[in-house]
Each structure stands twice: as C-alpha cells, then as structure tokens.
Amino acid sequence: MLGKIDLNCDMGEGFATDALIMPLISSANIACGYHAGGGELMQQTIRLAMQHQVAIGAHPSFNDRDGFGRREMQLYGEEIHEIVSNQVNSILKAAEAEGAKLSHVKPHGALYNMAANDPMVADAISRAIKEIDASLIVYGLPDSASESSAKAHGLKFYREVFSDRTYTNEGRLTPRQQQNALIETVEQCIAQVLQVVVHQTIKSTDGQEISIQADTICIHGDGEHAVAFAQLIKQSLDQQGIAIKQ
Asked: How far lies 165's CA from each of 30, 51, 171, 210, in Å?
C-alpha cells in the first residue's frame, strides 16, 4: 500500500449525480444554502453520506445564489466571520439531528479563492471554525493564506489539489475566466491525479513540473462525465494501491 488520499466532492448543490458519486468518495462538502442547497436537500445529502460512510463537511460561501457563489464580494472580516459561522452551525445542527458528526469545512467558490490570497478573509474563516469546533479540518490550497491562518489558529489543514483544474507556475489555480483553466479530458485528469498522489508534483500550464503536496483531491459532480470520471479515478487509485479515505 503506497498510502492514502482523501477524495472529496461538492455535494447537495442540486445535481442529479450525488447518489452515484457518493459511494466513490471519502468526504462530501455539503452546500449550506447560501450558494445552493440548504434545508431538506442538506438533510438528504447528510443521510446519503452516512449511508456510504463518507465524512460530512460544510461548504460555506458568499450569500450569492444567482452567481453560484463564484462572484467576489468585498466584506469586512466580521461579516465573513458571521456568514461562515451561520452556515457551519446550520449544517452542524442538521448533522446532529441525524446522529452524524461534522468533520471538515471547505469554503466554496469566490470565498475559497479569496481566502487563499487574503489573510483577512482566511483569518475570519479560521476564527469562525475554531469557535464552533476546533477539531474541524479546514480544506484549502497548499501554501496559501488559508493554510497559514488555519495553522496559526491550531486547526488541522488539508492541502487540496483539484483533479480537473490547471495550475500556474506558482502552484495557484488558473483563473476560471482563462481558456485553459479546466482540464477537458478524463485521461488528463486521471494523469494529473496520479502524478500528484504518487510523485507529489504537477505540470503547470507552461509545462513546468512543480512540487505540490496533497492531503485531499477534489472532483466535481456537475460535469458531463462526472460519474464516469469519479469511477475511473477510484479504479486508478485502487490499481496503484492507494486507499481512498479521509
């Protein structure tokens, strides 16, 4: 056994693929209602995760359903603290009602990207998480403000690499508005995942091989071939003797 890797997916956002992808992953980031989901869908997704022994996480975002949480919002630190607290507490109560435990928090979309680059945003998120439950794991970009802030607050941090996104020479995600931000083929996605997990490197958009460490790999459940892709990633990791677990 080479080791293990956590395989996470954003869930409870209203996509029909959740039930098919859930058995293939080890952790689910469940939307809390601000960019998608919430209410009964959140409860259903928690129950689905429990059924497949998948770790349950909060997926808080800016209050932006129209923009699916992908538009940056300039808020004060206390405002960010409040929206994260509200969402994490919401899913924490939903999980407790089902007899489940919350394991982690992964910010969504623009909130995630801003936290990676802005220490103020990262600090507001870390403070909110620590106040609720200091045992919760924070998911975010490696070597980012998110990682520095989480560790400064004594929180466990999982370095996340995306299976279907390209990276710059600096090890940052290529902005979505650029043409080459997404990896279009299943074969390339799987090659990237295996390179990250086995060799701890990744190839940038300029062809440079850069060092990168991952505790968790993100797959997306809303793509055209999302289910087949998740199945192939699991199969490829199994073949390499890598366990999928948080």
From this structure: 20, 29, 11, 15
Residue pLDDT, tens place only, 89-139: 999 999 999 999 999 999 999 999 999 999 999 999 999 999 999 999 999
Q: Write the DSSP symbol of residue 195.
A: I
Half-sphere exposure of 118 (CA within 13 A, CB side): 17
Domain ranges of the chain: 3-244
């098919």: which residue's tokens? 20
Cα separation, 223 vs 94, whole angstroms: 27
Strand (E) positions, the chain? Answer: 3-11, 27-31, 55-59, 102-105, 137-140, 157-162, 201-203, 209-211, 216-219, 242-244
**CA 202 to each of CA 108, 132, 169, 175, 191: distance values in angstroms, whole numbers, following the listed order:** 23, 35, 10, 17, 10
Q: Classify domain 3-244 at the CATH topology level.
A: TIM Barrel (3.20.20)
Alpha-carbon distance of 30 to 108, in angstroms, equals: 10
Backbone angles phi, psi at 105, to 5 degrees: -135, 125
Burial of 31 (0-12, 13-18, 19+ CB in 10 A): buried
pTM, entire model: 0.95
**If DSSP codes are grouped into helix, strand and coil, which group holds residue 235?**
helix
